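Tokens as discussed.
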């Protein structure tokens, strides 16, 4: 357009074309507006029809020569090529924009998938944490039960030692009682003499009852300590 303006400024007879060119957007619009100024076969060189009246110039005759028409055609071809190039660039830009939109859609889908996977992983981690906390609580409970069992075992061992001590004492008492009883019931110590005399000897009833009561107490204590079995129905 700057080239066209400079060429039109050098030709005062083309001011109508220049005025319209200043208002037009490209050369194509100028040529379409002044297509009646092109040389026709029936007109001689240098002659042209009258231009259509415009806003700034009215009833001005435009005379275009062949060089100016060729230059305008060249400018038109250049403008057309530029337009096609712009269309191609616009098509490329639109294709790139479509590609970018597709990539953006795929990225959004991938982000949504990753977010869903992250939520699933977080829920799984929460479930694992809850199960771990439950296992820890169960382990603490088992440790407490083990401590109680160990304390009970120690108490049982201590009680068993006490029972074994009492059992030994009871055995000693039983042995001493048996010795005393054997000494008391031995007829050779009370009635020395021949065997025929000892065979007819009978113990007094009071001594027999006392011996029976002592042996019963010893048996009862031994049964309580577990040294003797429980009393049967025949005893």
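Sequence:
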């Amino acid at each position: 357009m700057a080239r066209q303006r400079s060429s039109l400024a050098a030709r005062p007879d083309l001011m109508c074309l220049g005025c319209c060119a200043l208002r037009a957007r490209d050369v194509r619009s100028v040529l379409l507006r002044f297509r009646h100024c092109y040389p026709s076969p029936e007109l001689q060189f240098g002659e042209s029809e009258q231009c259509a009246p415009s806003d700034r110039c009215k009833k001005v005759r435009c005379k275009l020569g062949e060089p100016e028409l060729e230059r305008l055609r060249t400018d038109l071809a250049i403008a057309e090529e530029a337009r096609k190039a712009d269309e191609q660039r616009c098509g490329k830009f639109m294709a790139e924009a479509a590609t970018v939109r597709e990539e953006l859609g795929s990225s959004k889908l991938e982000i949504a998938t990753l977010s869903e996977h992250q939520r699933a992983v977080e829920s799984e981690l929460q479930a694992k944490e809850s199960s771990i906390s439950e296992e820890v609580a169960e382990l603490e409970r088992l440790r407490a039960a083990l401590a109680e069992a160990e304390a009970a075992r120690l108490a049982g061992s201590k009680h068993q030692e006490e029972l074994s001590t009492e059992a030994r004492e009871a055995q000693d008492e039983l042995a001493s009682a048996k010795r005393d009883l054997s000494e008391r019931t031995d007829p050779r110590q009370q009635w020395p003499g021949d065997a025929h005399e000892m065979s007819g000897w009978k113990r007094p009833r009071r001594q027999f009852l006392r011996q029976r009561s002592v042996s019963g107490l010893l048996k009862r204590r031994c049964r309580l300590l577990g040294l003797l079995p429980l009393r049967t129905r025949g005893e």
